[in-house]
C-alpha cells in the first residue's frame, strides 16, 4: 500500500467523484488534459489488478491510497529482472522501483 497525502484545501465532493474520469480537470481551459489520474487509475486497476482511491477532508487534506496485490508485485519483479538482466538485489526492490517510476511519470508526483 502506498499513501500520498497533502495538507492542502481538500477536494469538494463533486470533484472527488469525478477525478478518475478521462478528461476531467479542475484547471482552466487549455491548461490540463485531464488524463493524469485517469491513466494512473487504468495502470493500477486494469493492468495490475490493484486499487486506487482518494480520501479527502475539505480544508484539511487529500490522500491517495494505492494498493497493489502481491501477485502483481511478483509479476513486476519478474519483468524487471528480465529487463535488467542478472542482478542479485531482492525482488521487492525491483517492484518498488517500478512503482516509483510509475508515479514519477504521473500527475500524482507533481
Describe this entry's structure for a reader:
- The protein has four helices and three strands.
- Helix content is about 40%, strand content about 15%.
- The chain starts with a strand and ends in a 6-residue tail after the last helix.
- A hairpin with a 3-residue loop joins strand 2 and strand 3.
- The C terminus is likely disordered.
- It has a three-stranded antiparallel β-sheet.
Unreliable residue runs: 89-97, 106-110
Principal-axis shape equals: globular
Radius of gyration computed on alpha carbons: 16 Å
Q: Approximately what portion of the residues adopt beta-strand conformation?
A: 15-25%
Compute the average pLDDT.
77
Which strands sit side by side, in order, in the main sheet? 1-3-2
Helix content: 40-55%
Class computed from helices, strands and strand pairing: alpha+beta
H/E element order: EHHEEHH
List keywords for this structure.
3-stranded antiparallel beta sheet; disordered C terminus; 110 residues; globular; alpha+beta
Short description, anyone?
With 110 residues, this protein is an alpha+beta fold.
Please render the helix and strand layout as text.
Layout: E1 2-6, H1 13-16, H2 36-47, E2 51-57, E3 61-67, H3 70-84, H4 91-104
Antiparallel strand pairs: 1-3, 2-3
